[in-house]
Amino acid sequence: MIVYDICDNLAVVDQWELERSYYWICCDQKEIHKLEVIFSAETIEECQNFRQYPRIDYYKNYSFMVFNALDNEELEIIPREIDIYLGKSFIVTVYKNEVKLISNLMEDIEKDKNCFILKENCKPYIILYYILDRLIINNYNIIADLETEADRIELDILKSPKSKHINKLVSLRRESYKLRKLLNPLRYIGDALLLNENNVIEHDHMYLFKNLNDKIEKLLASMESLAQDLAMVREAYEAEIGIRTNELMKAFTIITAVFLPLQLITAIFGMSFEHIPFKNDRFAFEGLIGTMAFLVVILMAIFKGKKIL
Questions:
Q1: Which of 71, 119, 132, 162 is packed most tightly, with the most Cβ within 10 A?
Q2: Interatomic CA distance for residues 148 and 146, integer angstroms
Q3: Are residues 10 and 132 in the same domain?
Q4: Global pTM?
Q5: What average pLDDT does the segment 75-98 reach?
Q6: Residue 158 contacts residue 236 (beta carbons within 8 Å)
Q7: What number of other Cβ atoms are within 10 A of residue 79's Cβ?
């Protein structure tokens, strides 16, 4: 467990008291029991048992929140849960594995980069704002990556549809459903943050969380757009397969139409009658082949004239 002093540019402190300064406490799920004096046993247990869906609970002196930081590993969505306690003088982040967006946020704060609101007001809820803001941006980038892959698959389908494309599309749709399941609760969390039932967030800075709520709505709109894009790509695949099938059936039909009269001629001359005209002529075979070739040329000309070919 590491304790940072928010007002001292995230300097690490060994001794701390909640009312002396504002602190950011980072710990993993195995260390959260050290704070069981401050927090309820229910939330401590939830921090130790991950795989919770995003939500927010209000307590008298703090709020408990669950979020998922998403990672994109070769177009597979991997959720990494972050549990957050927010009080008036502290913010506690609990996670099982290292979360990149939190470590990146710490680096930016130390370098005075993209954190000017915190420099003006070093309150814990500003840290929460930055975490959620980066969480939303990270999730939006993942949606953008999936959309880019969907566009690439669509272009490949238009060039030459193959079975591997539908397999990739099914995989993308599965990740899209997983994404929707993980992100949909954010809509209600955004509304709950605006309620601010225990007044942990100062009213003068509620506009920041209203801004977050607007970003959440845009994020969810992007997610719905992704679902529509995937549906359109699937329709494009089915349409392209339908076109290819029609072209193949058209080719078979033309071949059948060309060979049908030829089969009829060979069937007639193959009959076992004793008297068949031209059967015993010297040039009967050459004449028959020539007639067949002439019929093929005539039929091809007719098909081309009717724009069937």
A1: 132
A2: 5
A3: yes
A4: 0.76
A5: 86
A6: yes
A7: 18
Are residues 70 and 81 located together in one domain of the fold? Answer: yes
pLDDT digits (tens, 9 = 90+) for 257-285: 888 888 888 887 777 666 777 667 777 77
Closest of 207, 216, 220, 208 to residue 189, by C-alpha: 216
CATH number at residue 138: 3.30.460.20
236 and 269 fall within a common domain? no
Of 48, 41, 52, the C-alpha closest to 27 is 48
Percent of the chain with pLDDT over 70: 96
Q: What is the average per-residue pLDDT within 291-305?
A: 84
**How many Å apart are CA 39 and CA 94, to the nearest integer?**
13
Q: What is 85-125 written as a DSSP string?
A: EEESSEEEEEESS--HHHHHHHHHHHTT-S-HHHHH---HH
Q: How far apart are CA 42 and CA 122, in angstroms?
A: 29
Least confidently predicted of 15-19, 224-228, 234-238: 15-19
Residue 42 identity: E
> What's the domain count of the chain?
2
Pairing, β 77-87 against β 62-72:
antiparallel
